[in-house]
Amino acid sequence: MPSAQVITWTNRISTIEEVVVISILAATLTIVVILGVIAPTRIGREFTARLRRRQVARRGGDQPATFACRLRPDGQVRWRRRCRAAWIHDVLLVTSGRVFPRTTALAVRMPEDVIRGTTRNEISQLGTHPHVIILRLDDGQLIELAAGESDRTCLAGPFLAAAIPGLRAARVERRRRFRTDHPLGQPDPKEQD
């Protein structure tokens, strides 16, 4: 009577093809885990930004300046996920999605109001002092577009007049009085404070 044979995992792998398939699956799983750990970190963001810059350089480098933003149809409470946008004339191109990016073109007729500042509590992921502009599209729909404080000019796009009100006051430089009778135009010591 033949003895009972114990089937173990090692006995199960019998062909070279099965070994190759398992090796490929293990390598793929390892890469996915590593990317899942590294991608959200600073190193992952820098790597992604470098990769995008290379892609733009290969295409000729004539891409418009993009900025991080969030948008929502006027009247809704929730803001959509963070995305990137760029103005080409009066059309706003909005690219969203990290794995499967999709681009939406929004033909803008005009801004409804000037750019207003808001707080981080209203709009997250855009810095401490985000700005919002309400835009009227060609089909009559209103949308709110938000961007960080450093992207105020990009947010206004071709409608720069909307960005002028609400700017911080410029630094005032004091003019120094110079002696006109001195050949080098040295400051007059009598008029210095």
Provide an overview of this structure:
The protein is an alpha+beta fold. The chain is built from four helices and seven strands; from the N terminus they run αααβββββββα. The protein has a six-stranded antiparallel beta barrel with strand order 1-2-3-4-6-7. The radius of gyration is 29 Å and the shape is extended.
Helix/strand layout:
Layout: H1 9-12, H2 16-38, H3 42-58, E1 67-73, E2 83-88, E3 91-96, E4 102-111, E5 116-117, E6 131-137, E7 142-147, H4 152-156
Antiparallel strand pairs: 1-2, 1-7, 2-3, 3-4, 4-6, 5-6, 6-7
Structural class based on helices, strands and sheet pairing? alpha+beta
Tally the beta strands.
7
Per DSSP, the total helix count is 4
Order of neighbouring strands in the sheet with most strands: 1-2-3-4-6-7
Query: How helix-rich are the residues, as a percent range?
Result: 25-40%
Mean pLDDT: 77
Shape: extended
Sketch the major β-sheet: 6 strands, antiparallel, barrel
Order of helices and strands: HHHEEEEEEEH
Using only C-alpha atoms, the radius of gyration works out to 29 Å
How much beta, percentage-wise? 15-25%
Distance between the termini: 115 Å
List its traits.
193 residues, alpha+beta, 7 strands, 25% helix, extended
Task: Summarize the model shown.
The protein is an alpha+beta fold. Helix content is 25%, strand content 23%. A six-stranded antiparallel beta barrel has the order 1-2-3-4-6-7.
